[in-house]
Inverse folding.
């Protein structure tokens, strides 16, 4: 055994710089889940009857379902009665009419996270919807966007102001019957972002939602719905962080994307939920359903994700390629360190003719982390002349981690082609020494090698995000190699 | 004026897992000198290079190595590099996805930082490398490619010398840089190395064959066998070696 391998053990430590708690008085519903809880949430949000009914139907369906066990992750059984399903910072007087009236403590929180919301400091070129526990704190640039006919607001506002759109598309891509966590989300979702890009409009700025869990013992269940009308295009970013807590917290979100004829949606995620400590205590269970429907001809949906946080990640951002000539893409970097577990990948369902999909997945395992890629490429009989290319690469850092690949391929016609490439490599001591011999520290060397490994995915991220993602990767793997 | 010693190796004993490879190796290299170290395979040449650069997995059981008066063996490999020790690898390593320019800029800036000099930005760096890349007759696109990825054997070796040109080490150790080079590449590499010779720095050229020494003219030639230097001399020794073979020298 070389000394480098020995020191890997001693150096597994990591700092999570978003682990602070905002000291804000919040009102949470007591833990527990039944129809009253759901009616309570619905009433609290002043929802129309159709939505309350939809929630109740989802809840009843959920009760008939079993928690899935096929994923390659281990965790103690979740007590769904021990979670608070609604938590919001206590409103002071009337609801804030503009961001200037929002509790300064909340604005400070987002500033600390690098997401200034106030007019003066706002990020140029990025409109942000900030979600704090169960509610939206505020949305920037919405007036500017409204001039182009773009609707970007919290989900709750959309329910009231654009009920027709919400009613038409809610659950149209991920029905509440889809899976256990999607059903749960449909019953108890609290807020989220809504976005509609009208016909022929290219959204002039990046839209973004920043999710923050703050309250203890609460779960976060939000829903995002993005609709790009004919020939519209939008790039959407999502970021997430949470305080360091000893207990596990559940985050079960649903994201639905709909792209009509010629429309393009690019959805990028940098997921940095609290991953738990080096012994696997605490951390977020990130059980998320994300799916895009390429409904129209030649539409295109691109998922790019950088998953560095969460104790457990369970998500498969997928594309249903219904429109002829539509394209689905999935670019993913998933990092596990310490005791983290990830079971992530994608599904590409080819239904329309001449549809194309691309999958590039980069899994990095360090510490005692377990990383699984799980993907389905399904080419139906109707999807003549369709093509898929998949590439799944895994990198191992140290001797106690694991990388697993579960590809499923179903092709039902003879005119389509599917390619799958996979590789597993160990970060080489030779590579590290080569960098050392040029004056680079081992940590810098690892960051450089890992970033090189992920390059194909990072280049798909919007510029500002790519830089952030590279830094994040550095922090996540800090101390993983001696 | 007495010469400044750059490297002083005294009675070095070292090996891997109980196998002694270096058995009392002595060598002093002064500023401005080029030393050639020759020897058969397995004589310990590459082990010496690895130990000087600080590669893991070797045990030094006896002896000292001083670099500019400091205990070299106490330093981490990256510290050695920052202090001016450069190893041109016999087998340069590929780092997929890492841009060559970015890599070399990071390396140079580490060295500059340790000297208290300001770091170079991308534009200043490109200005600096423009001349150096011509020296090695390398294609410009090499800088845009990933470190050593998909390079031919010759390109990898030339890239090592190119890195050396940019990093300007005080002590350059060339570990069998000539192996795998055709005669044209050999000439280019040698010309590069000769041009990089400076009065305040030194070079240790490790080679198996005499032919490299037709182009890089050493001040001293040492023949190594069984873990130590058995014969030292001027550049004529290399010619003698070429004419009579190692056997004759080892017996004499």
């Amino acid at each position: 055994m070389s000394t480098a391998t020995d020191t890997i053990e001693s150096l597994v430590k990591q700092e999570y710089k978003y682990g602070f708690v905002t000291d804000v008085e919040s009102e949470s519903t007591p833990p527990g889940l039944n129809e009253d809880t759901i009616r309570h949430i619905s009433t609290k949000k002043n929802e129309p009857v159709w939505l309350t009914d939809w929630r109740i139907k989802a809840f009843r369906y959920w009760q008939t379902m079993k928690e899935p066990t096929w994923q390659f992750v281990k965790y103690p059984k979740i007590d769904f009665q021990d979670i608070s399903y609604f938590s919001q910072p206590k409103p002071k007087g009337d609801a804030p009419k503009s961001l200037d009236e929002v509790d300064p403590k909340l604005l400070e929180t987002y500033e600390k996270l690098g997401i200034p919301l106030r007019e003066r400091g706002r990020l140029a070129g990025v409109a942000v919807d900030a979600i704090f526990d169960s509610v939206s704190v505020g949305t920037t640039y919405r007036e500017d966007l409204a001039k182009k006919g773009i609707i970007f607001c919290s989900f709750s506002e959309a329910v009231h102001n654009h009920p027709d759109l919400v009613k038409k598309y809610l659950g149209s891509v991920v029905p509440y019957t889809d899976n256990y966590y999607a059903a749960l989300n449909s019953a108890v979702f609290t807020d989220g972002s809504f976005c509609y890009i009208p016909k022929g409009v290219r959204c002039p700025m990046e839209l973004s939602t920043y999710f923050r869990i703050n309250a203890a013992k609460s779960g976060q269940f939000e829903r995002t719905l993005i609709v790009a009308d004919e020939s519209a295009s939008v790039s959407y970013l999502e970021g997430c962080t949470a305080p360091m807590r000893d207990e596990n917290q559940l985050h079960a979100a649903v994201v639905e994307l709909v792209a009509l004829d010629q429309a393009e949606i690019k959805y990028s995620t940098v997921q940095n939920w609290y991953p738990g400590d080096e012994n696997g205590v605490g951390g977020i269970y990130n059980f998320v359903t994300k799916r895009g429907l390429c409904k129209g001809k030649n539409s295109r949906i691109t998922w790019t994700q950088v998953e560095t946080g969460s104790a457990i990640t369970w998500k498969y951002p997928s594309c249903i390629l219904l429109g002829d000539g539509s394209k689905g893409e999935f670019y993913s970097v998933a990092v596990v360190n310490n005791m983290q577990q990830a079971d992530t990948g994608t599904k590409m369902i080819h239904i329309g003719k001449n549809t194309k999909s691309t999958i590039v997945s980069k899994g990095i395992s360090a510490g005692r982390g377990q990383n699984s890629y799980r993907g389905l490429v399904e080419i139906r009989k109707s999807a003549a002349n369709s093509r898929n290319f998949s590439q799944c690469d895994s990198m191992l850092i140290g001797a106690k981690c694991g990388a697993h690949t579960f590809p499923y391929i179903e092709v039902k016609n003879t005119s389509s082609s599917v390619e799958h490439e996979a590789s597993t490599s160990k970060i080489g001591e030779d590579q590290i020494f080569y960098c050392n011999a040029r004056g680079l520290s081992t940590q810098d060397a690892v960051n450089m090698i890992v970033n090189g490994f992920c390059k194909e995915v990072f280049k798909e991220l919007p510029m500002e995000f790519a830089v952030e993602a590279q830094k994040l990767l550095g922090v996540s793997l800090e101390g993983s190699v001696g | 004026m007495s010469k400044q010693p750059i490297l002083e190796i005294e009675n070095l004993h070292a090996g891997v897992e109980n196998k002694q490879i270096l058995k009392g190796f002595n060598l002093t290299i002064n500023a401005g000198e080029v030393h050639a170290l020759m020897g058969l395979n397995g004589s310990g040449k590459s082990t010496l290079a690895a130990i000087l650069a600080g590669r893991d997995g070797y045990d030094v059981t006896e002896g000292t190595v001083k670099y500019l008066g400091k205990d070299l063996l106490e330093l981490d490999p990256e510290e050695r590099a920052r202090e001016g020790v450069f190893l041109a690898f016999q087998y340069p390593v590929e780092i997929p996805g890492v841009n060559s320019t970015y890599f070399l800029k990071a390396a140079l800036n580490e060295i500059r930082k340790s000297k208290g000099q300001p770091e170079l930005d991308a534009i200043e760096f490109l200005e600096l490398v423009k001349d150096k890349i011509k020296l090695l007759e390398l294609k410009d696109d090499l800088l845009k490619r990933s470190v050593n990825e998909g390079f031919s054997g010759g390109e990898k070796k030339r890239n090592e010398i190119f890195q050396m040109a940019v990093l300007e080490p005080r002590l350059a150790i060339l570990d069998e840089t000539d192996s795998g080079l055709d005669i044209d590449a050999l000439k280019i590499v040698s010309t590069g190395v000769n041009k990089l010779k400076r009065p305040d720095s030194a070079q240790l050229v490790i080679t198996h064959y005499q032919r490299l020494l037709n182009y890089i003219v050493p001040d001293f030639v040492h023949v190594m066998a069984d873990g130590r230097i058995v014969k030292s001399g001027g550049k004529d020794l290399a010619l003698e070696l070429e004419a009579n073979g190692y056997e004759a020298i080892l017996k004499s």
Summary: Residues 8 and 76 of chain B are 18 Å apart (CA to CA). The first helix of chain B runs from residue 45 to 53. The radius of gyration of chain B is 18 Å. The mean pLDDT of chain B is 89.
